[in-house]
Amino acid sequence: MTGQQGQCAKCGSCTAVCPVYRVTGRESLTARGRLHLLGTELAARPSAAYEDLFAQCLLCGACENVCPRHLPIRRLTVEARSRFSFLYGRHPLRRSLVRTVLARPVLLERLVKTGLALERLPLIPRDSGLRLKLALLDGEPAAGPAAQQETAIEPDTAAAGIQYFVGCLARYLQPSIAGATRRLVRRFSGSPTVEPRAQGCCGLAAWSAGDREEAVRLAKQNIEAFESSTGPVLTSCVSCFAHLKKYGELFSDDPGWRERAEWFSRRVREFSAFMLELDPAPVFRSPGRERILYHEPCHLRFSGENREAPPALLRQLQGAVIVEPEGGPHCCGQGGLFYLGYPELGDRIFSRACEAALATGADVLATGCSGCLLQWRTGLDIRHAPVRVLHPAVLLADCLDNDS
Length: 404
Hints:
Layout: H1 13-17, H2 19-24, H3 31-38, H4 48-55, H5 62-66, H6 73-81, H7 92-103, H8 105-119, H9 129-134, H10 155-160, E1 162-165, H11 168-173, H12 175-189, E2 193-194, H13 204-208, H14 212-226, E3 233-235, H15 238-244, H16 255-267, E4 268-270, H17 271-276, E5 284-285, E6 291-294, H18 298-301, H19 309-314, E7 317-318, E8 321-323, H20 337-341, H21 343-359, E9 364-366, H22 370-382, E10 388-390, H23 392-400
Parallel strand pairs: 1-2, 1-3, 3-4, 5-7, 6-8, 6-9, 9-10
Helix pairs in contact: 3-6, 12-23, 14-16, 21-22
């Protein structure tokens, strides 16, 4: 066995933290198991069963976080996927379709408008799975690319202003998140956000699937979209944040683009950290003593940066009670494309997180990850749990109306 996969000490630390292993007990679904497979002759000509084992990884980073040899397990997993057949894993068409739509905003915008129209049809049963999914959409379609913030700002001011990388969820599926972010930034910084028209998907879904070419294309698109500006690049999605901060890694063999990517990444700021850095830091008032649970997304928890900012911002909400799940943060089982391919397995992982969350007696669950938001809203709706699931920006913007 050669390469970094051969350096695995087989200590088993990864098995203790892997969400998939904890619900399946399958050694082949751990980082230790996959690293072993990477060093065998099976890796040269991967079978469908081999590909399926690598597809059943959330890429949450928990194993990498505890690995005593600091092996780049996520990168090795993604590199393995890049050599797989186009239709690998389960439900490959479903996953490929979502990746295609995310990478092409025009398609996503049209599908959202169609979905809003379908949601209003009385023919769809109230308890159907389709209606539950459509209910995740905001009541009104997002404004198209023509209605961007930068058109109302002087060019010089726009270039040095607060740039906003909106992300797919806030731009199209739930524009209330973008609206709340804009409102809070303007209220407490005194400046509007600037949203370049050419921005697109961050590329995390493409990278996770092993489609490096598509991930690089999307990264270049976003770098160029913000390159004429100099201000901070704010994003309200923590998963987008984690991926945007690592753009430089996509261009390891291209020094010119790597320099441009690293400059872009240095400008990226996550919403909560940005708000806390304002002077003075904003303070909010809760309408009542709501119990608020913060769900910490894995992409942020294991990225090594900015982990403390979201809960710290929520603690600026006076009158609310911040609660925590027993045993600390739990993975919700969404994992982007993972849940599309393995919804039953994802739901088993979610059930553990949900049980811990409901035990806190929370009235509100707040999380800043687009995927986690969708997972929690769907999972709690299915279970008829009376817990509101909100992005922190939406929760805090709603509290502005309580100011006297």
